[in-house]
UniProtKB/TrEMBL annotation:
InterPro entries: cNMP-bd_dom, cNMP-bd_dom_sf, Env_Response_Regulators, HTH_CRP, RmlC-like_jellyroll, WH-like_DNA-bd_sf, WH_DNA-bd_sf. This is CRP-like cAMP-activated global transcriptional regulator. Residues 11-99 form the Cyclic nucleotide-binding domain. It holds the Pfam family HTH_Crp_2. Residues 146-219 form the HTH crp-type domain. GO terms for biological process: negative regulation of DNA-templated transcription; positive regulation of DNA-templated transcription. PROSITE patterns: CNMP_BINDING_3, HTH_CRP_2. One of its GO terms (molecular function) is DNA binding.
Length: 226
């Protein structure tokens, strides 16, 4: 397991070596292949996970039976904290979207004991929850008030922030999502999202790839998202 990813994960980066070693000793490793489900929405919950390698999607089935994507998480990001502080069922389904996903996990019971006397990690978990609530509020607001191209531009920026790599052509964002999954993340019909992307591409703001995009004019995308 690549321990460096965990050592640099925002949640654990404040820990001293001794605490980190204790945490790593309690962790289990799980490997998933693309399309494999770690757990389903509604399952009972007893572990917190951190992504070590690859990406996962967090999804929910809406009342109409359609999938919506809450988030895509990659290396260093943590999930499974909602059921830690509010015990009950998993609030989303977690599925691997890259060929291979490696996860490190910790039982909620072990974590709660371990958190005693480590306020920096507790504060980190609160910051994580607050950030997720803020983002969820933004998404709700955008679903009501923002047009689909704006939501597409915002989703590209969010993915670029975490997965983007600077290249000569622009920021290369390998999101590993199918067109359908990208549409589920944006919360619009696949045709609508494809049309927005094709329009951005025609204007020279992005170059489209299979499961990725190169943002060639970041300024325009930022303006479209604003
Ligand atoms: P839990 O409910 O234990 O299992 C599913 C996890 O998905 C949940 O904890 C959170 O870690 C994560 N999750 C749920 N909703 C969101 C969201 N809106 N944004 C990011 N992560 C989320």
């Amino acid at each position: 397991m690549d321990q460096d990813v965990l050592r640099h994960a925002p949640l654990f980066s404040e820990l001293d070596d001794e605490s980190m070693t204790a945490m790593l000793a309690m962790m289990d490793r799980t490997v998933l292949k693309r399309g494999e489900v770690l757990f389903h929405e509604g399952d009972s919950a007893d572990r917190l996970y951190a992504v070590v390698d690859g990406k996962v999607k967090l999804s929910r089935v809406s009342a109409g039976g359609q999938d919506s994507l809450l988030a895509i998480l990659g290396p260093g990001q943590v999930f499974g904290e909602l059921s830690l502080f509010d015990p009950g069922q998993r609030s989303s389904t977690v599925t691997a979207v890259t060929d291979q996903v490696e996860l490190a996990s910790l039982s909620h019971d072990d974590l709660l004991v371990w958190l005693d006397g480590r306020p920096s990690v507790t504060r980190g978990l609160l910051a994580l929850l607050s950030g997720r609530l803020r983002r969820a509020n933004d998404v709700i607001g955008d679903l009501v008030f923002a047009d689909a191209p704006r939501r597409v531009a915002k989703a590209l920026l969010d993915l670029a922030e975490r997965f983007g790599q600077e290249t000569e052509e622009g920021v290369h964002v390998r999101h590993d999502l199918t067109q359908e999954e990208l549409a589920q993340l944006v919360g619009a019909a696949r045709e609508t999202v494809n049309k927005a992307l094709a329009d951005f591409a025609a204007k020279g703001w992005v170059k489209l790839e299979s499961r990725g995009v190169i943002i060639t004019d970041m300024e325009r995308i930022v303006r479209r998202a604003g």
